Structure formats: C-alpha cells, structure tokens
Amino acid sequence: MTKITWKPGTLEYPLPPAMISCGTIEHPNIMTAAWTGIVNSEPPMTYVSIRPSRYSHGIIKESGEFVINLTTEQLVAAADFCGVKSGKDVNKFKEMKLTAGQCSEISAPQIVESPVSLECKVKDISSLGSHDMFLAEIVAVNVDDKYIDATGKLRLEDCNLVAYAHNAYYSLGRCLGFFGFSVCRNAMKINQRMKNVVVEVKTPKIKLEDHKSPQRHNGFKSRRKSSNPMRKKAFSSTGKLARHERKHQSRSK
Ligand SMILES: Cc1cc2nc3c(=O)[nH]c(=O)nc-3n(C[C@H](O)[C@H](O)[C@H](O)COP(=O)(O)O)c2cc1C
To answer: Which of 111, 158, 180, 199 could form a disulfide with 69 if both were Cys (CB 3.0 to 4.6 A apart)?
Structure first.
C-alpha cells in the first residue's frame, strides 16, 4: 500500500450533519453544522464550530444557547436546505415545514421532528481562525418517546440517522458489531441475535486470557470467572458488557 501525503486538511469523516436550532420560539433559526461533536462525558459537553459570517453565529453568541438536533433520513433534505440558505433571508422552519418546540432548560427552540434534541448552554467561545468554536454543556436531552421501548431503552437504531462524509449524506447502513465485540467471545452469536446485523466477525480478534474450559449457559459458552475482580462481571452470559463496565468504559472515553 502506498499513501500519498497531502497538505493539511479537514478530512475526518463521517460526521453528523446536525441541525443546530437557535433564537426563540417566535424567531427561530436553524443552521446545519458538521463540525460538532462530544468532548466530555461528565458533565456532558459538546462543541459546534461556526463561521462568524453565519446568521446563527450572532444569535448564539448573544443568547448563549443552541440545540443540536439529530438528522434522520426523513430530515436530510431539510438539513441540506438549512445548510445552504441563511436565516437572514428565509424562515427555515416555515420553508421546511418544521415545528419549533419549547425546550425544558433553555429558551432556544428544538426541532420537534428530530428524534433527539440536545439542549446546550455555551460555556466558552474560542476563535480558531475561520470558525469560532462554541464549547457548551448539554443541559437536557429530548427524545421522541416513540423510539423508547418497553424496557426504557432508546432504540436509536430505529431513527434512521444519517452521516455526512466528503460532501455527501449517507444512511448508516448495517451494524457491524456492538461496543466491545472485538473482545467478547460470544460476539458472533450475539451479533446473530441482533436485529439487522450481518455477521462478519468469525472469531474475536483479541483472545481473553481465561478462555479455557468454557461453561454452557442458555446454549451459549460462557467465560470462566476471571480471577481479576475488576473483570469478573465484565461480560454476562449473553456476552453483553456488564453495567459497571459500560459505565467505566464510557467514563474513560
Ligand atoms: C452538511 C453541511 C455542514 C455544514 N457545517 C457547517 C459548520 O460546521 N460550520 C459552519 O459555520 N457552517 C456549516 N455549514 C454551512 C451553514 O450551515 C450555512 O452557511 C447556513 O446557511 C448558515 O445558516 P444561517 O446563516 O441561517 O446561520 C454546513 C452546511 C452543510 C450543508
């Protein structure tokens, strides 16, 4: 394999084509931003980088609030429109037949048609050059209850979220594994049981050291108990990561 070295650029994909709503219920605006992401877990924090020339820039700088609305396949044309038209010239909520909904912690409106909307309060603004980065705390999350199942779990996989890569929008496609599957000995069987999953992993890439003498439980081979108390309940018999492990891993991200 030969790689060609180019001059520095922003070629990191995929990104979310997030719909950033701001302003007020009476005077709402939306801009699309791909330069956004999570930067901290506790407290949950995010950023959005916005060129000072955007109409939304002044609104967010003034109010210190914005909402990140996740974009679905149903919303992708609206997201593109909100990314090429300015609120200086058009009412994008009206043009795209979107609804500005009340948030719980901030005055900025959320997009009702988006399945997940993150309410954000600006903590800091850094001028980086072409863009100003708004660092913000996520103060509330609004989720469409139609995607919450009987056990209270958010079925994000049913929302048809889209990704943005190299000037184009994509649907997410098939699931290739769950968090930690590369070290889970039951990955293949678990994958088979997951909805819409095409099994590609034949064996775990990394072997756990205590893999000898597997015991059978519910038809699955379960791992022998580890001598390391921290790893003991890392995977349940169904191969799912135990709650404390998930918490630990999300903390260490
Ligand atoms: C997919 C996509 C991603 C975009 N990402 C950003 C971004 O991260 N930051 C930014 O300043 N503009 C971004 N834009 C451009 C703005 O969304 C666009 O200039 C928009 O018209 C600004 O709206 P406003 O003037 O109403 O604020 C993006 C546009 C598209 C289509």
So the answer is: 111
